[in-house]
Amino acid sequence: MQKDPKKNLPAYIKINAIMDYTEGKMAKRAIAEKYGVSHVSIINWVNEKDKLLQECRESARLLEGLGLPAGGQPLEPLQEAPMQTGKDRAALLAENRKLRKENEYLAHRIAYMESLAKVMGFNPGSTRKKNGLKPSTSSSSPAGRGT
C-alpha cells in the first residue's frame, strides 16, 4: 500500500475539521475520513488551532481592518453562531420559500416580456444585458424617486 503525498489543504477545511472535533459531532477517525486525511492530522490540527487561526487573521489583514489589537497577543478563536431555536429555522425556511416564489415570478415575467418583444418585432438578444453595467447614481434612480 502506497502512502499518498502530503496534502496542503486550505485553512477553511482545517478549521471546519477542528470545529467538528471540538463540538463533538464526530470521532477523530470519522472526521479524518470525511476530509480525506489521517486521524493524526486531525490531532495535529487541533493542537495547532491557535496558530492556524492567527495565520488566517494575518493573511486576511483582519488586525488592521477591524481595529483588533496588534502584536503578539493571542486572539479568541472565531465561533460560528448556531441557530438558537426551531423558530430561527422556521423563519429561514419561510424566507427561503418567499425568495424562491419571487424568483419564479421574475423568471416568468422576463419570459413574458421577451415573448412580447418578439411579437412587437424587437430582438431582445441585440441589446446589452444589465449585468455588466454599474448601478445608476442619478436622481432618476428608483431610490431617488420616493416610490
Poorly predicted tracts of residues: none
Mean pLDDT: 74
* Total number of beta strands: 0
First-to-last CA distance: 70 Å
Taken from the alpha-carbon principal axes, the silhouette is: elongated
Strand percentage, roughly? under 5%
Helical proportion, percent range: 55-70%
Rounded to an integer, what's the Rg over CA atoms? 25 Å
SSE class: mainly alpha
Number of helices: 7
Largest sheet: none
Q: What is the H/E order? A: HHHHHHH
GO molecular function: DNA binding
Region (Disordered): 123-147
Pfam families: CENP-B_N
Biased composition (Polar residues): 134-147
How would you characterize the overall build of this protein?
With 147 residues, the protein is mainly alpha-helical. Among the domains are: 11-65; 84-124. 56% of the residues lie in helices and 0% in strands. It has helices at residues 11-22, 28-35, 39-47, 49-60, 62-65, 86-119, 142-145. Residues 123-147 are annotated as: Disordered. Residues 12-55 form the HTH psq-type domain.
Brief sketch in words of this structure:
With 147 residues, the protein is mainly α.
Index terms:
56% helix; single chain; elongated; 147 residues; mainly alpha
Task: Please give the structural blueprint.
Layout: H1 11-22, H2 28-35, H3 39-47, H4 49-60, H5 62-65, H6 86-119, H7 142-145
Helix pairs in contact: 1-2, 2-3
